[in-house]
Amino acid sequence: MASQNMDPAAAAASSTAALKGSESGGSAARSSVSKRLQQELMTLMMSGDKGISAFPESDNLFKWIGTIDGANGTVYEGLRYRLSLEFPAGYPYQAPRVKFVTSCFHPNVDGQGFICLDILKDKWSALYDVRSILLSIQSLLGGCCVHCHVFTTSWSMTL
């Protein structure tokens, strides 16, 4: 395949240009994203990571339901949280929209379940995948990001 020998920056620019040039994500772009998501699903299923999982919601590969178990030794130990993950047509060059479906009382989670996590915002990279997102959120539950307290009531109660 020619794309295997392509410069990563050129490949990213080419993919981004293709996405911009297609209407509503276009079938080629959606096919590319679908392939990526299928690979990520297989990687996640084969990873053997404890306490995280995610699967497409019904037949829609662009909407997933994930679960995260609270890490041992934290106040979240023994709890299981459900998350929704929605992937844009520009994925992996655009971050997915991730939020808690299960209520989560944490300084970096707002009242609607949205998560303040740098890799879901300005630090997003196409190198991240569903597995790294879930592991990062699980890790966040063990502490907090001091630069982003979206739920100030819970933050002030932890001081």
UniProtKB/TrEMBL annotation:
Catalytic residues (positions): C116 (glycyl thioester intermediate)
PROSITE patterns, alphabetized: UBC_1, UBC_2
SMART domains with a match to the protein in the record: UBCc
Keyword ATP-binding attached: yes
GO molecular function: ATP binding; transferase activity
Keywords from the UniProt entry: ATP-binding, Nucleotide-binding, Transferase, Ubl conjugation pathway
Domain of life: Eukaryota
InterPro entries associated with the record: Ub_conjugating_enzyme, UBC, UBQ-conjugating_AS, UBQ-conjugating_enzyme/RWD
Residue stretches making up the UBC core domain: 32-159
Family statement: Belongs to the ubiquitin-conjugating enzyme family.
PANTHER family cross-referenced by the UniProt entry: UBIQUITIN-CONJUGATING ENZYME E2 (PTHR24067)
Designated name of the protein: Ubiquitin conjugating enzyme E2 C
Originating species: Cyclopterus lumpus
Lineage: Eukaryota, Metazoa, Chordata, Craniata, Vertebrata
Gene name as annotated: UBE2C
